[in-house]
Design a protein that fits this description.
Family (chain B): Belongs to the metallo-dependent hydrolases superfamily.
Pfam family, one (chain B): TatD_DNase
Shape of chain A: elongated
Order of helices and strands of chain B: EHEHHEHEHEHEHEHEHHHH
Number of helices of chain B: 12
Radius of gyration of chain B: 18 Å
CATH class of chain B: Alpha Beta
Strand order of the largest sheet of chain B: 1-2-3-4-5-6-7-8
Strand content of chain A: under 5%
Organism (chain B): Hymenobacter roseosalivarius DSM 11622
CATH architecture of chain B: Alpha-Beta Barrel
Largest sheet of chain A: none
Oligomer: heterodimer
Structural class of chain A: mainly alpha
Distance between the termini of chain A: 37 Å
CATH superfamily of chain B: Metal-dependent hydrolases
InterPro entries (chain B): Metal_Hydrolase, TatD-like, UCP005295
Largest sheet of chain B: 8 strands, parallel
Number of domains of chain B: 1
Number of helices of chain A: 17
Protein name (chain B): TatD-related deoxyribonuclease
Structural class of chain B: alpha/beta
Number of strands of chain B: 8
Chain lengths: ~290, ~300
């Protein structure tokens, strides 16, 4: 993938879905590289010309997006968001440092929608390794739309965040009841420290008489120990069918003989690969109604 | 009833205030950029403040089902630090064209110094350039003269009075403001600005044309429910519903709506969308909390 391909893709999509006024405006912006001040202004003014409607992307357009950049999924993107992303790809610059300076200035002065657009655009931006600290910073936000832009349907964290930051992203998604199944690469980046932190968090929630998302157990399953089996037993006795399913699936991923014994006690069977992921997706999709 | 509070400094207020405002029917608010109670010393704190207004505070309001807009400007008090003011002026173009920025404000005079005059004029030019309304803060001291001067200078710079909101009026200034075709805003603020019984009398006398009210609630002793409370008082004292709606909702919408950044559909159609964001996934509202209900205390603000 190159920036050029991403630009072509966005231009093609926007040509289909921008109102006439937006097309004319965008053509003017793209004619020549924008001087810095003009870029800042254009970046802010985008929605006045493009509108803010969601882009009705077809299946093949979404597929094309995924080929552009593995995991890139612009489903739900709005006209202004795609246009802003295109402007980001067109920033005139001589060096990565110059590019970073412009991007940082945009981040520092961004409004709520601009921030979300900036974070969602990270997987397409050039010099991806220079945006790691920014992405970790984005995970710290308390603004839901901004957090979602970086955490959900965005392959950048999967590709570039170090494990500590990745784990914070997942923990924060759990804490804020964001849908884990929409985090790109969730299964591939499971790890033991994360599983331990989530177990502790589950105990904390239970001690306070609160519930937590059944998706948590998707991350814990492979790291179950004899000590944590009572936790799973508790799930199996839950009144909530999703918690029971989550407990069963977690056991099905464990290699622990005691876990497998508990699994057959619960009349569950081992599930692997695609089917296992599909079941977790279904649990996730039902968990936040 | 639905209300707009077109001047309220929510960064200084608590979530209790947001809850109470929403319950009382406030659907949209405008937060003018102002000073923080003591002068800032760095341009970076201005940048972060403006960014806070269009970012986190907008988000925070949305958690309570309230649409948050703002005006961006260099306030008169801090215009007196000229070295800093120069730097702030360079920042403003980065912010005035953001979504939801409905004006340049609050700007104008405080001590009515030469520095204040300079940056007021520069910002009038900026407002003209980006075609935004202007929200004028009128001074506490030497108020009448300061108000007249604010308007004269705005006219001198070729601003359309219909694009200028003169704020913090009282019985002594309102006639001049209306005569010149400007919008006359009144701040219902205990002890220093207007009380709301006086406000009822002003509206009885002048009618609802180009008049609207706000709370200017901030870090001082002030009342974020001033708009709904005053609306109730107006109705109790026999003002027609249409008049009350104009003074507490429609006129503010007409004035700041000229920015193109505050369409009524934002809150009339947004409710369903915002709900999905509201109680899930945030660190402000926690599930299971019940909104605090104001005791039925007096609606009179003195």
């Amino acid at each position: 993938m190159t920036d050029k391909h991403s630009q072509d893709y966005l231009v093609a999509v926007l040509t289909l879905h921008l109102p006439e006024r937006g097309q004319v405006w965008l053509r003017t912006q793209l004619e020549n590289p924008l001087p810095e001040k003009a870029l800042y202004l254009a970046f802010s003014l985008v929605p006045r010309f493009t509108g803010k409607h969601p882009l009705p992307l077809t299946g093949s357009q979404l597929q094309e997006a995924g080929q552009l950049r593995l995991g890139f999924n612009p489903e739900g993107w709005t006209a202004d968001q795609a246009t802003r992303t295109l402007l980001l790809l067109r920033v005139a610059h001589q060096s990565p440092a110059e590019y970073s300076a412009v991007i940082n200035r945009l981040f520092k002065t961004a409004d709520l929608n601009e921030l979300a657009a900036l974070y969602a655009a990270l997987p397409l931006l050039p010099y991806p390794e220079t945006h790691v600290l920014r992405a970790a910073e984005g995970v710290r936000t308390t603004m839901t739309s901004v957090f979602d832009a970086i955490a959900l349907g965005n392959p950048y964290p999967y590709d570039y965040l170090p494990q500590e930051a990745w784990n914070q992203l997942v923990l924060k998604a759990v804490f804020n009841a964001r849908p884990l199944y929409r985090i790109y690469g969730l299964d591939q980046r499971r790890n033991e420290p994360l599983a331990h932190m989530l177990l502790d968090y589950a105990h904390e929630r239970w001690a306070a008489g609160r519930t937590l998302t059944p998706e948590v157990w998707r991350l814990v399953g492979p790291y179950l120990t004899a000590d944590s089996l009572p936790d799973v037993r508790r799930l199996l006795h839950s009144d909530d069918a999703l918690q029971v399913q989550a407990g069963t699936l977690a056991l099905a991923e464990s290699r622990l003989p005691a876990a497998l014994a508990l699994l057959s006690e619960a009349s569950g069977t081992q599930v692997v690969g695609q089917e296992r992921a599909a079941r977790w997706e279904r649990i996730g999709a039902q968990a936040y109604g | 009833m639905r209300y707009i509070d077109p001047h309220v400094h929510m960064t200084s207020r608590t979530t209790d205030d947001y809850e109470a405002m929403r319950q009382a029917g406030v659907v949209a608010i405008i937060e003018p950029a102002f000073w923080m109670g003591q002068p800032r010393t760095q341009v970076g704190t201005f940048q972060d403040y403006y960014s806070h207004l269009i970012g986190f505070e907008r988000f925070r309001a949305s958690q309570f089902g309230i649409k948050h807009y703002c005006t961006i400007g260099l306030n008169s008090k801090e215009a007196n630090n000229e070295a800093l003011a120069e730097e702030v002026m360079e920042l403003l173009p980065l912010f005035v064209s953001k979504e939801g920025v409905v004006g340049v404000g609050e700007i104008g005079y405080d001590d009515q110094t030469a520095a204040e005059d300079k940056y007021y004029r520069l910002q009038l030019e900026l407002a003209k350039e980006v075609n935004l309304p202007v929200q004028i803060h009128t001074p506490h001291r030497d108020k009448k003269k300061g108000t007249l001067r604010s308007m004269e200078v705005a006219l001198e710079h070729g601003l359309d009075p219909g694009m200028v909101i003169v704020d913090h009026n009282n019985e002594e200034t309102v006639q001049d403001v209306l005569d010149r075709g400007f919008w006359a805003a009144f701040t219902i603020y205990p002890h220093t600005k207007m009380g709301n019984e006086r406000m009822v009398e002003v509206v009885k006398h002048y009618g609802p044309e180009r008049i609207f009210i706000n709370s200017a609630a901030d870090w001082g002793i002030s009342d974020p429910l001033a708009v709904p409370k005053t609306a109730q008082l107006m109705l109790e004292r026999g003002l027609p519903l249409d008049t009350v709606e104009r003074v507490t909702y429609r006129n503010a919408l007409a004035a700041f709506g000229q920015s193109g950044q505050m369409p009524e559909t934002d809150w009339l159609t947004a409710a369903a969308i915002d709900q999905s964001m509201k109680f899930s996934g945030n660190s402000i509202l926690r599930g299971g909390q019940t909104p605090k209900v104001e005791a039925a205390d007096t609606r009179i603000i003195r």
